[in-house]
Fold this protein.
Amino acid sequence: MFPLLAKCGRLQRLFSNDPSMDSIDLPDFPGGAEAFETCAKFCYGISITLSAFNLVSVRCACAHLDMSERVERGNLSLKLDSFFSSCVLRGWKDSLVALRSTKAYAPQCEEEELGITPRCVDAIASKVAADPSRAGWGDDLAELGIDHYWRVMLVVRSVGTVPPGLVGDTLRAYAARWLPHARRDESRHRAVLERIVNLLPAEKGAVGCGFLSMLLKASNVLGASEATKGELVRRVGVQLEQATVEDLMISLDDGSGYDVNVVASMLDHFMTRGEKRSPPTSPPRRRPGPERRRRSRSAEDVEFGYQESRRSSAASHGAKLLVGKVIDGYLKEVAGEPNLPVSKFVALAEAVPDFARTDHDDLYKAIDTYLRAHQNLGKEERKRLCRGLDCKKLSVEACMHAAQNELLPLRVVVQLLYFDQARSATAAAAAATTPNIKALLASKSVRGGDGWSVSGLRPSGSKSSAATLRMKLAEGDDDDSDSGDDEASVQRRLAVASKLKGLCAIPARPKRMFIIDLQLEIMVQNCSE
C-alpha cells in the first residue's frame, strides 16, 4: 500500500486521520474498479494501456485520488494530460470518442481543473471549421448527445467558415438520427427538436421546406412550445415558393384533420415578407421654392442599394405564381375533409392575389371536391364558396365540366355559359380571314348574309339580346335564392341553362362583322358588370 500512499494525496489524508485502519472505503469511485486498477498499476510501476476510450475515466479517477504534481513530480495526472493533448485531441475520431465518454462524468469533466469537455468541443469545432468539405463529419456529429452537439454547433456557427447550407445538411442528418421514433412522452426528444430549431441558419434557403415541414410535424407530435412552432411556420412562409403540397400537409394536434390555419399563417408570412424593411413607395413631397441641390453620388448609391435590398426581400411575381399553384393544390387535397368549414376554405383561397393565378382550373377542382364532400351546404354557403372563382380563367375542359355541375350555384353556371360563348367567338375570329380590317372598320354600313348589321359596329337586335341575357341572369338569381335544394329546383336550373345555351348559339358560318360586334358586346357586358 505504500506506493499508493506515495502518489495518491487523497489516500494520504484518509490514512493520516486514522493510522490504524487497514482498509479504506472509496464510494462512488469514477470509472469503477477498472479505472482504479489502472491507477494502481501506475503506482506500482506496471505498464498501462491508454486510449480515447478509457482516458476520460482514468483521468477522472486520477483526479479523485489526487494524483497530481503537488503530491509527487511526474505523477499520473501530468502524463494523462500530455497524452490527451498530443494524441487524443489531434485525432477526429478520438476527439469524438473522448467527448462521448465525458457524459458519464459530466460534473468532473466540466471543472476548470480538468476541462475535458470544453477542450474536446473546441478541438472538434476547429477541425470542422478548418475543413468544412470533410466528408461525413455531419454524420459523425450525429452520434453525439444533444448537449454536446449543441455546444459543438454553436462554436462551428460562431467561427463563420461553414456555409449555411452545409450547416442545414448537418442538422437534417442529426434530426434523421434522433427524431423518427420520437414520442410525446419523451421530453428528451422535445429538447432535441427545440435545440435543432434554435440552430437553424438564418439565411433563406439554407434549409429546405421539406425539412422544416418535417420538424413542424414532429413538433405537433412532441408537443413543442408555441415559440418553436411559430418559428418553423415563419421559416416555411418566407420561402413558401419552394414548398410542395406534401410539405403543407400538417395534421392538427388531435389528428382530426389538417391544420389550415398553419398554412394560412405561412401564406401571410410569404405575402408580407420584406414589408417591414421597405420604405414608403410614394416619393417624398418637394418643398416649393428654388430647385433643390443635386444629391451626392454616395447618397444615390445608398438609396440604390436600399431599393435593391427591398426588391430581394420582397416576394417576386414569379414566386407568387408558384405559391398560388401550391395553395390551390393544397386546397384540392384538404377539400374532402369533413370537418373543414367553408370560412377557412374561402379565407385561404382568397388570400392568394388574383394575379397569382394564371388559371382557375385547380381552384375549381378544389371547389368541386368540397361541394361533393359537403353536399348539405346551403345556398348562401355555396355562393360564398364560389365567390372567388373567375369563369374567364377556366380552360375549355373545366368549363365543360362546370357547365354540367349541378352542385354549383346557378349564377356561376350562367357566367360559364356566357364566357364560353365569348371564347368560342374569339376562336372563330382567329380563324376568320380579315384582309383589310381598317377598311372594314371605316365602312359606315355593311349588311351580312345572316341578318347582321354593321351600322355603328352593332348587330341588329343586339340591345334586345343583351337585355334578354341580363334578364335570364336575374331570373337565375331569383330562382337560386327562392328555391330550395329539391329536385324541382335542379330541374328549373337545368331548364334555364338550356335556354341560355339556345340564346347564345353561334351561327354555323359566322361573318366577320358578327365576330367584331360580339367582341364589342362582350366588352360592354364586362363594363356593365
The longest helix spans residues 410-431.
